[in-house]
Amino acid sequence: LADTATQTRLLQGLSTALGLPRIPKRIEVYDNSHIQGTNAVGAMIVAGPDGFIKNQYRKFNIKSEGLTPGDDYAMMREVLERRFKRLLKPPEGDAAKPADDDSFPQWPDLVIIDGGRGQLNAVREIFEGLGLTQVSLMAVAKGPDRDAGRETLFMPDREAIKLEPRDPVLYFIQRLRDEAHRFVIGSHRKLRKKDIR
């Protein structure tokens, strides 16, 4: 109960700090991993009022042909297009999923990506292309020398946001980003191991 109360306060704080239209019930965080473009994998983690929702994490093996090795924008584009095109038009008669399984087709209130203004603009372009207007979007750029606590937050049509290093909301955002990073690195290692075998 204490954990849930803390999580609710953090979500309220996040909503206030970012000026979101509502307190997010579902946050999706995206990250990519590759080694010089090989074994490229994208990942999505999900968090909500009860914390991390691990049974809704997803990994995406990057399939694009002719992808320039290490092109993070193109990888993010593929992952997000696959995720949201599926939401916009659920597959008909998908026998692989029971009819009452709504774990994947839920709309997020907030999408967080690892990166700066460039990544934000690339994702914003994807969202505009798909006609997504109801999802808030934020990018988290690492601080100088990748220093935790000095991150800059970017949102469309807004000045960059800097939170105090000890702000619980910033710590919460770091945890979300780090969890996405942990999950994508694990997925990448599994893929690489399989490839080496």
Write a concise keyword list for the protein shown above.
197 residues; alpha/beta; seven-stranded mixed β-sheet; 4 helices; globular
What does this structure look like?
The chain has 197 residues and is an alpha/beta fold. It is built from 4 helices and 7 strands; from the N terminus they run αββββαβαββα. Strands 1, 2, 3, 4, 5, 6 and 7 form a 7-stranded mixed sheet that branches. The longest helix has 29 residues, at 168-196. The protein is globular, with a radius of gyration of 17 Å. The chain starts with a helix and ends with a helix. Mean pLDDT is 82; it is low at 94-103.
Write a compact overview of the structure shown:
The N and C termini lie far apart (45 Å). With 197 residues, the chain is an alpha/beta fold. Helices cover 39% and strands 20% of the residues.
SSE blueprint:
Elements: H1 2-18, E1 27-35, E2 38-48, E3 51-52, E4 58-61, H2 72-88, E5 110-114, H3 117-130, E6 136-141, E7 152-154, H4 168-196
Parallel strand pairs: 1-5, 5-6
Antiparallel strand pairs: 1-2, 2-3, 2-4, 6-7
